[in-house]
Amino acid sequence: MAIMDGEATRSLSGPREMTLGTMYFGTTVPEAIGVDVLDEAFDLGVRTWDTANNYAFWVPGGTGGESEECLGRWFAAHPGRRDDIFLSTKVGARPRHGSKNLADAVGLSPTAIRGQLHASLARLGTDRVDLLYAHIDDETVPLAETIGAMEELRDEGLVGEIGASNLPAPRLREAIDAASGHDRGYRFLQQRFTFLNPAVGTDLSPHVLLDDAVAAECAAGGITMLGYSPLLSGAYTRPDRPLPDGYDTPANREALAVLAQVAGRSGLDSGQTVLAWMAQRATGVLPVVGVSSIEQLRSAATAVKTTLPQQDIHALEAVRMAG
Predict the structure, then answer these.
(1) Which site among 82, 119, 135, 195 is 20 to 30 Å from 321 CA-CA?
(2) Which member of 55, 133, 186, 228 is catalytic?
(3) Which of 130-134, 178-182, 280-284 is the least confident region?
(4) Is 55 one of the annotated active-site residues of the chain?
(5) pLDDT tens-digit profile of 25-47?
(6) Three-class SS state of 295
(7) Enclosing H/E stretch for 18
């Protein structure tokens, strides 16, 4: 999908595309390293960048504006490059001043959305974002009001497209229905997604899984899917990073064995193989990959461009579905 702005075209089209996640830039990833990663991403052609207005408030000393501010300083130091980047941010999940609790989030009322966006634009040093997400499901505000407010910002040229994050399937269906009568509604959905499935009933909150029911709603609504946490914080490749709670199941141990076999044949590691699989699977999910070093960025960028044989894609799908 392309966003036109004068002579510039910024796109998020896939399927062989990754989004650079910048969640910890300016907090656990020192800004100097974050800037180096952004430089390398630009040079590699990884020019879809994702942030949010609350990254990363939960880190000791964090306020929630660090990631956007890091990107803003990069844009300021590189005049003319903003038009080459497809830039997304998110609103709704920033705690109110003085709080560190998501229960105190500013939320998604029309007034809150507009105020949060303008604050994000100031931190980012830009006059628009290409994609604005509703970061959480704010059940205190009718979905039609939230979507309508975001569409107003799009119509004003402050936002290119609108999307949602962390919506379960029933609420996504409500959002699609609520947008009828509006121009377009949500065109993107970003949820938790990876090769392994958690055990049924696993509490992932505040994350919401991109499960089959959500994928079906996206297909019906023509919504592009993106998946965050595709590498499970390094659990596919690092012995010091165990699988998260709910993922260490007999079915997943079998799936990991198949993944390792495919990785061995492809010359990739298991994490890279997950990204290559995401980029090639029939039901595409664009990976949002958070990195903390240039080496991790290069690894991910190589992975999404690597072609796996179709028999390996089928083998991965089969063992995943069996779980």
Answers:
(1) 135
(2) 55
(3) 178-182
(4) yes
(5) 999 999 999 999 999 999 999 99
(6) helix
(7) none
Q: Which residues have CB under 8 Å from 281's CB, separation 6+?
A: 313, 317
Count Cβ atoms below 10 Å from residue 302 Cβ, excluding itself: 15
Q: Please give the single-letter amino acid code of residue 188.
A: F
Q: What is the sign of the dihedral through the CA atoms of 43, 84, 8 and 6?
A: negative
Mean pLDDT of the chain: 93
Q: Reduced to 3 states, what is the DSSP secondary structure of residue 34?
A: helix
- Least Cα distance to 321 among 188, 152, 222, 195 occurs for 195
Tokens 């407010």 sit on residue: 149
| Helices 66-77, 31-44: crossing angle, 10 deg rounding | 60
How many other C-beta atoms are found inside a 10 Å radius of the C-beta of residue 100?
A: 12
Tokens for 273, please give them: 């193989």
Torsion of CA 229, 259, 302, 231, to 10 degrees: 10
